[in-house]
UniProtKB/TrEMBL annotation, chain A:
UniProt entry keywords in alphabetical sequence: Nucleus, Repeat, rRNA processing, WD repeat
Organism classification: Eukaryota, Metazoa, Ecdysozoa, Arthropoda, Crustacea
Sequence ranges of the WD repeats: 364-399
Mitochondrion recorded as keyword: no
Location within or outside the cell: Nucleus, Nucleolus
Primary localization class, coarse: nucleus
UniProt organism field: Hirondellea gigas
Residue ranges annotated for the BING4 C-terminal domain, each copy included: 445-523
Biological process annotations from GO: maturation of SSU-rRNA from tricistronic rRNA transcript (SSU-rRNA, 5.8S rRNA, LSU-rRNA)
Extent of the signal sequence: none
UniProt name for this protein: WD repeat-containing protein 46-like
A single Gene Ontology CC term: small-subunit processome
UniProtKB/TrEMBL annotation, chain B:
Chain positions covered by the region annotation Disordered: 411-443
GO biological process, alphabetically ordered: maturation of SSU-rRNA from tricistronic rRNA transcript (SSU-rRNA, 5.8S rRNA, LSU-rRNA); protein ubiquitination
Source organism of the structure: Hirondellea gigas
Pfam families documented for this protein: Sof1, WD40
Main location: nucleus
Domain Sof1-like protein: 353-438
GO CC terms: small-subunit processome
Extent of Basic residues compositional bias: 417-432
Family statement: Belongs to the WD repeat DCAF13/WDSOF1 family.
InterPro entries for this protein: Sof1, WD40/YVTN_repeat-like_dom_sf, WD40_PAC1, WD40_repeat_CS, WD40_repeat_dom_sf, WD40_rpt, WD_repeat_DCAF13/WDSOF1
Mapped WD repeat ranges: 50-84, 93-134, 276-317, 319-360
Keywords: Nucleus, Repeat, Ribonucleoprotein, WD repeat
Protein name: DDB1- and CUL4-associated factor 13
Amino acid sequence: RKKHCSQTEENMSSPMKNAKDDSAVRKYNAGDMKSIRKKHCSQTEENMSIPEVKAEDGSAVRTYDTGDMKFDRNNKWTKKKDQQHEGRNSGIDAFRKEKEEKFPGRKPVSTEALKKFYYGPGMKKGPKLTGIGMSRRNKFVQKEKLVEEGRREAARAEMLLTEQSGCVEAAEGFSTMNLTQRDIVESSDITSKCKSFELKLDHFGPYKLKYFRDGRHLALAGKMGHLSNFNWVTKKLTTEINIMQQLYDVCYLQDHRTLAVAQNDWVSIYDEAGVELHAVKDFYNINYLDYMPYHFLCVALSSCKGMLHYLDVTLGQEVTNITTGNGRASGMCHNPYNGVICTSHVNGTVNMWTPNCKAAVASMLAHKAPVSAMAYDPSGRYLVTSSCRRELHIWDARNLGTQLHSLKTQQPARQISVSQRGLIALGFDRDVQIYRGIHGSVVEPYMKQSLGNLLSQVQFCPYEDVLGVTTRDTFISLIIPGAGEANFDAAEVNPYSSKSNRREALIKGLLAKVPAELITLDPYTVAQVDIPTLEEKLEAQRKLVYVNVPRINPKPKYRMKGKSGSAQTAKRKMIRKEMHKTRYLDKVKKDRIAAGLEEKKPSSNDKYKEKIYENVLDRFK
Amino acid sequence: DYVRECGQVQKVQHNPDPKLHPFERAREYTRALNATKLDKVFAKPFIGALSGHIDSIWKLANVPTRLSTLISGSCDGELRVWDIPQRRVTWKAQAHRGFVRGVVVERSGKNVITCGDDQTIKVWSLDQSTIMEDDDEQDESKENVKPLHEFLGKAGFLDIDCQWDSDLLVTSGMQVDLWDMNRSEPLHSFSWGADTINTVKFNRVETNVLSSTASDRNIVLYDIRSKTPIRKLVMKMCTNSLCWNPMEAFNFTIACEDCNLYTFDMRKLQQAMNVHKDHVRAAMSVDYSPTGREFVSGSYDQTVRIFRVSEGHSREVYHTKRMQRVFCVKFSADSKFVFSGSDDTNVRVWKSQSSARLGTLLPRQKQQLRYRKQLKKKYVHMPEIRRIERHRHVPKSIYKATELRHIMSSAAERKESRRRKHSKPGSRKFKVERKSHIVQEDE
């Protein structure tokens, strides 16, 4: 029991939060229930499941708790039936009623959960498919039914999740902002207490930090050459070396034992024993490093040179390099939703890059001042940027240029990090503020913490309610309730993985390594039907208006008996060219007719058809 | 809760939230591509060759009650009964002088009935007590095996088949004869036209219906209840073999001399249901899978091909350097194997799914295979996957011949289109490929 307790709390959400509230599980939100009822009205009674509430007399009566009004659905339903079959079928009805009470059927899926697994409108509202037969259309319809069923099942599977997450809620008149770390630590259990700690790192000054994807390992790189890699939960040190060079950034590669470090001149890769495995000397003057685990790509940005490098770590080859331009780059991050690399610049733009295109796939003027920091939220839907003019913007990352929310901060934010549950941590000069609700209106901070020294970096730890902060001389681990995702998926990242698990995951990951060519702004374009947009159609039409016949240089065959003299050859060349031209123009003409740019001339056959005279003598008229 | 304790099964936590599963589509596509490539890696369809015959193998027969037994009859009149898993001969006999033209096993699975050029039908017991040890004994034992009964006909027989729900036999040759096992004379004789009748086959579902193909290019359907033939179809080229679909009673497929196979609905003989093209020389033999969804064909071009009934091109092509012209093919009764008998005196055993694994599979392996299959199905239209999936290596001669046939057919098409262009509109009708190989249908 003790063990269970500690481990649930480990992933936990909040020490402050009450124990699992059974009633909360059972009761439905009033708003939800209405929509469910609307959707389910056609379905049979068996598919409905209704929470049981004990009535005063002790008998189990099913009720909907719809706010003020109580709606006794079952009673109403039976009453209707009773009126219909007065006396005749009362026995059957009673039996049915009893059966329904015993077996209420499957629990309805909440619309919230369904929304999460929404894959688009499907055939009904999607682009129209023309020119396909009924049978194929039916196949699509069948397939869509399957997709819908899968969606429902996935949403239903949420019921099986073992953990719950939630933030600290303040009582009326109080604010969570005033909670200090000491308050939180005092009221939490011993395992959680261990997660709040501070490391004094005096001499190697300002530190960069990176949590590994499973949220258990932490790499710290001091500017003066101190590199360490440790399991911060057990506080077990894996690597600690002094590289004796300036370190600019650090990132984990596929597993927690290999680190890529941006050093003075180039990027080096170290293993757990601190041995330099590779020195990637093509990557020169790198300031920012990032790693995309599904593509096995290490991305490096040199901000002063404006060069973006992609390194395929499975082959050890550079995939591509891109010149970013737009002045000095002030930050880099990758979008976990589509694998697009985002760089922010001093001219206020945010540019997005893929390895397949030398130009930016998207560019956005985020601020009219230098962008000071930016971060994606882990779902890849929102982009948070801040500028030197103390602005903070939240953008819709899929619908670029749509600003969802904006905020004026007291100081310019130097660092931003977004947690898995959507908390935003803003790092200012000497303090950190955490805001709640990336979707809602950000008004006042959820929590804040002042720091003793100048801030260097902030990052939320995945799958834990922890925020890591580094300053000039310390690393601080803060407990922020409600930050991490409580339920992990062991098939993707398993914080509790064993050695054999990790090995297997590595092999499976390698087998499903996504090629760099598949990185696009919309990750769902893979395996989609290529339907030309209106723009493309217009472009194709425009091309038909002015036609240049492509030149050819024919080489006529050598012929015997003096037929290959220069005059003869030139003549034959001419004929070939003419033939090519007429054929090409004929083809264009056909296309033009098809596009509606030209009208079809009646052919000689059509003339015959038109001149069918009723009377033989009519032709002499 | 998350860490395994001693002796516990490891729990795997799942969270279906799409946020935790990025690049779903791209990763799935990569997996589908891998699955397709793995299929190619594991495609080893050839299991083994059963050698021993001295002359080409002309006929193969399955035993309805046993999966492991195969019977082959060769051109020198030898009959061999094979134990497939052991890859050895159970017994053999010098059945006929000249070709063994037809081999069939009675529905009880006890007797083998053969017919040959020497005007005899012989009935053999399948369970002969002779056990072969070495070659000398074999030759002696060959003399020892004697048929149970023997019927003498008026002319040489070319094929034999047995009804599926009674003991009636049917033979072909000069005419189609219907035999009862207990009588020495045929019960009834059918004839329509005067040419030799090459093959005869009973329908397995509608057991009273049978069909024959003759060397004057016709296919005749009979009903043994009506005593006269029902219908006759004349093709442009001679038909070498015919097989009824075991699941769809009215459909049958013919292997034609013009390299193609045609699937017909016996109710609508005006046009074929499907034309299966891929062989480059005459198709010699055809046999349906017990599922009725696909069939195997052997050809004079030294290949064995497996076709889906609904598709015009083959799903699979099998060939080896040593395999010569294929005279007979057979699907095994569990639809997992294909047997081919060829000119090089060998019976070959192939897998019907080239990359299938033999032997029992663990549940997890099964699940993995199911998943891969589904992935391949989902992404089959992606160009890269399609290319890999469709690619088959064929011998150079066949590759060239296919190319040549393509050139010829496209030239003919081009010529036809030009003729149409330069003639009075409507005077040249479009030809339907499915009808173009049929001459006429008689009732």
